[in-house]
Amino acid sequence: MAGLTPAAQRAPLLAAGFTTAFGAHAVAGTLGTTTTGAAASLLTLGALLAIYDGAEVVLKPIFGTLADRIGARTVLVAGLLIFAVASAAYTMVDNNAMLWAGRFGQGVGAAAFSPAASALVARLTPSGGHGRAFGTYGFYKSIGYTLGPLLGGLIVSLGGMRTLFGVMAVLAVAVATWATICVPTVSPLPRRRQTLVDTVRRFSESSFV
Q: Can you tell me the distance from the alpha carbon of 29 to that of 67, in angstroms, rounded to the nearest whole number?
């Protein structure tokens, strides 16, 4: 980590942004044409697609708060590993129950490493460069959203859904390893304890209006 430029330190975070978007759309673009049983009805198919994003919606605020308490780098790496384990589990046990569990586990992992990556982009960017840094981060997420259905469809057509989950597991492990090497440990920012009196005082300040 010593001697790395801020851009080099942020590079694994861009890969993490790609991973969460790719994980969502690579499966979503192929699930309806490659599964039977659990995904036989449109309602069940919709639930399988929503479980990933649903886990993110519910858990992102929790993991974001955790990142503020224990450090975003720890939450980033842990989330990527959760994503990898959930993906690998389906490659070993190919059944409907594991498909549900795998998608939910991927969503849990993404809910952890996605806000942590965003927080680290902010902390590792010099003053005055945040707009460009977040624009680049969003660009790589957009690449994941765009290439997800295309690459996902190609991988599934060549090797099946288990191969796609295997690719996602390898991708998550690679990004976690990269982040461990290149992303520095950033201490949580000090938190000022605010009382009810402080809140009432803020409402009375002219600058609040």
A: 31
